[in-house]
Design goal:
two-stranded parallel ribbon, Carbonyl reductase [NADPH] 1, 11% strand, carbonyl reductase (NADPH) activity, EC 1.1.1.189, Rossmann fold, 15-hydroxyprostaglandin-D dehydrogenase (NADP+) activity, 6 strands, alpha/beta
Length: 223
């Protein structure tokens, strides 16, 4: 692999939506496609909520943040970054207190402030006060709020620090897809779920956007 070769890196890609994204990119992307995955123990439904919150937060939010921290400095001009979030983030945001909604929708929220909020959610669940503190009863939803807001923050930083490189970074919802987590009754196949992530990954080099947006069904959704 030479330094001039274009590379697409897909994390969590050993099955489901991730694997479908890899297959689409292998057909359409003019470069090397790298698949990464890890085995992960899944919590049972009977797992206490605070443990669900901590495990889900480490995987969904901090896992995404760690990957971005390491790889964003390596992204070349016209690169594309797609973080898979969920429409659950939009619905969960509406269930947060007005104070939390204002913080998550702020155009000036920093990464450090967001990390503090995500850690506070976990600590509030451990103390049994998350409802009192304005959080919804969904660990998954809160972590996906984190992914969506993190994407907005990183996009803003890219515009400020590397605006001339025309890098586009977005969060997206693949939809309700038939996976191990969503179950067999979901309306979309993994291939259909891959459509929006692949669309964003393959935005042409002269595209001006979307950037820093939440995208579903290839359309920008108001955050």
């Amino acid at each position: 692999m030479s330094s001039s070769t274009r590379v697409a890196l897909v994390t969590g890609a050993n099955k489901g939506i991730g694997l479908a994204i890899v297959r689409d990119l292998c057909r359409e992307f003019p470069g090397d496609v790298v698949l990464t995955a890890r085995d992960e123990a899944r919590a049972a439904d009977t797992t206490p909520f605070h443990i669900q919150a901590e495990v889900t937060m480490k995987t969904n939010f901090f896992g995404t943040r760690d990957v971005c921290t390491e790889l964003l400095p390596l992204i070349k001009p016209h690169g594309r970054v797609v973080n898979v979030s969920s429409f659950v983030s939009v619905n969960s945001l509406k269930k947060c207190s007005p104070e939390l909604q204002q913080k998550f929708r702020s155009e000036t929220i920093t990464e450090e402030e967001l990390v503090g909020l995500m850690n506070k959610f976990v600590e509030d669940t451990k103390s049994g006060v998350h409802r009192k503190e304005g959080w919804p009863d969904t660990a998954y939803g809160v972590t996906k709020i984190g992914v969506t807001v993190l994407s907005r923050i990183h996009a803003r930083k890219l515009s400020e620090q590397r605006g001339g490189d025309k890098i586009l970074l977005n969060a997206c919802c693949p939809g309700w897809v038939r996976t191990d987590m969503a179950g067999p009754k979901a309306p979309k196949s993994p291939e259909e779920g891959a459509e929006t992530p692949v669309y964003l990954a393959l935005l042409p080099s002269d595209a001006e956007g979307p950037h820093g947006e939440f995208v579903s069904e290839k359309k920008v959704v108001q955050w």
